[in-house]
Fold:
Amino acid sequence: MAFMKFGIVVCPRCKKAKVVDLSCKTTKCHRCGKVLRLEHLRILYKSNSDQKIRRALGLVNAEMDGRLEDFKELMK
Structure:
């Protein structure tokens, strides 16, 4: 299995999803500043593609905000 470069995680403190570099051990939440250890987080999606990971991040955030249908309509 090929190593994936990017992943999506959700900050356990503020519940904001973000893209992370999977080659790193930690990342910092842009919203609340919490340092996140990737080994303790569930990776929701993995990809090597910048475009696919950004689209997946939009879907995750839209779903968490209760606006999934609006996002899907926008992406048509």
